[in-house]
DNA sequence: GTCTATAATGGGATAGAC
DNA sequence: GTCTATCCCATTATAGAC
C-alpha cells in the first residue's frame, strides 16, 4: 500500500518525479544546452527558481534523467530474460533481450530517448559515468552473443563485435520510427531476429 | 589549375572553408546550442564578429554544414555505384552503396558526424530542409533494396522497410567506433554485407 | 577582411519573503 | 515548497573604425 509522506504541504516527491519526466522529454527533443530550466519549469507550472528546491543544478537534473533512462532499459531487458527461467537456450535469451530492449525503449520513451541522444552533449562528470554504464551494457550483449557461439548458433567466421554493433544499431533505431499502430513490437523483434539469425547461423545443411 | 581570387587581401574563400570545417567539428561534438560563435572563431584565430562577414548568422552556418555533410555522403555513395558501370547486378550496386556510404562517413568525418547528430537540434527552417533530404536518401536505399528483390536476392517475406532500417542503422553506427588501424573499411563493409545477405537471401538449396 | 565596442536578450543560480 | 527579485555572465548580432 502507498506510504504517507513525512513532509506536509504539497508532495515534494510527486513534483520531483513530474519535473524529471518533463526534463527527460525536453532534454531528449531539444538537447542538453537548448533545454532551459525556465522551459522545464513552465511545463510544470512553476517558476525556474523552484526547481532548485528539488535539484541542486541542471547538471544533477540531467544526471538523474540519464540514470533513469539507462536503468529502465536494463531493467526491462533483464526482466524479459529472467522470465524465461534458468533452462532457456542462448537463442531464447537473445531473442528475449532484443524484445526486452525494444520494449524498454518504447515503454520509457522520454527517458530512453534522452539517454540515447544526450551522451555526446553532457557535462564531463555526467558523461564519464554514463560512458561506463554503456560499456557495461555492451558487455551484457557480448555475453549474450558468446552464449550463442557456445551453443553453436553463430558461424565461426562471424565477428562478435560487429554482430553486436549490427543488432544494437538496429534495435536502437526503433526510437526514430516505431509506431504502435504499424505492428506489434513482438512481431518486429521477431522479424529482426529472423534476419539476424538467418545471417549468422550456419547453413542448415 | 588554381584560379586566382578577384578579392585582394587575405583570401575570403579560404577563411570561409576553414570556418565551415571548424564549425562542422564543433557542432558535431558539442551539439548546436552548445556551439558558440566565439568557440568557432577562437579556433580559427579570429573574433566572433568576423564570422559575420562570411556567414549571415549561426543558422546559415549550420545549414551549410548540414548541406555539405549530406552532399558529401551522397556523392561518395553515388561515385562508388557509378564506378561499377551500367551492367552491374543489384547486389554489386548494393555492396558498392554500403562501402560508399561508409567511406563517405569516414572520409568526411566532421561533416558527416554533424549531419548525423544535429537533425533533432536544428532551428525549424533548417531542420525541415534536412528532413526532406533524408527522405530522398532513404528512397535511394529503398530503390537499391527493390533492385535486390527484382533480381531474386531478397526472400519474399522480408520487409524492405525493416531491412533498410537494419542496414542503415548498422552502416551509420560506424561513426562511433571505426578505427582505421583496426581493419580496412572494405573488409568491414564486406562482413556487414555478408551478414546481411546470408539473412535476406533465399536458402541456397 | 578583421577589429573593438556594445546592444539586446536570455541563461543558471541564489537570497530571502511568504 | 514556491514565489519575486536579482546577480552575473554568456550569447547572437550589429555598427563603425581601420
From TrEMBL, chains A, B:
GO molecular function terms noted in the UniProt entry: DNA-binding transcription factor activity; transcription cis-regulatory region binding
Keywords associated with the record: DNA-binding, Repressor, Transcription, Transcription regulation
Lineage top rank: taxon: Bacteria
Segments forming domain HTH tetR-type: 13-73
Annotated region of DNA binding: 36-55
Tagged with keyword Transcription regulation: yes
Keyword Repressor attached: yes
Protein name (database record): Transcriptional regulator, TetR family
Organism of provenance: Alicycliphilus denitrificans (strain DSM 14773 / CIP 107495 / K601)
Amino acid at each position: 500500500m502507498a506510504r504517507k509522506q513525512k513532509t506536509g504541504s504539497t508532495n515534494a516527491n510527486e513534483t520531483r518525479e513530474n519535473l524529471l519526466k518533463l526534463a527527460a522529454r525536453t532534454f531528449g527533443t531539444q538537447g542538453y544546452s537548448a533545454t532551459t530550466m525556465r522551459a522545464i519549469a513552465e511545463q510544470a507550472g512553476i517558476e525556474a527558481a523552484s526547481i532548485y528546491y528539488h535539484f541542486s543544478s541542471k547538471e544533477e537534473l540531467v544526471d538523474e534523467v540519464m540514470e533513469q533512462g539507462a536503468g529502465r532499459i536494463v531493467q526491462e531487458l533483464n526482466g524479459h530474460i529472467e522470465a524465461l527461467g534458468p533452462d532457456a537456450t542462448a537463442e531464447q535469451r537473445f531473442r528475449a533481450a532484443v524484445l526486452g530492449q525494444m520494449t524498454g525503449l518504447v515503454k520509457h520513451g522520454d527517458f530512453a530517448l534522452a539517454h540515447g541522444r544526450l551522451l555526446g552533449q553532457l557535462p564531463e562528470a555526467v558523461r564519464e559515468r554514463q560512458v561506463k554504464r554503456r560499456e557495461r551494457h555492451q558487455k551484457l550483449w557480448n555475453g549474450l552473443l558468446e552464449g550463442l557461439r557456445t551453443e553453436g548458433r553463430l558461424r565461426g567466421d562471424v565477428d562478435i563485435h560487429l554482430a553486436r554493433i549490427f543488432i544494437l544499431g538496429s534495435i536502437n533505431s526503433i526510437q526514430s520510427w516505431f509506431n504502435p499502430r504499424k505492428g506489434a513490437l513482438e512481431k518486429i523483434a521477431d522479424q529482426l531476429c529472423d534476419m539476424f539469425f538467418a545471417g549468422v547461423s550456419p547453413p542448415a545443411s
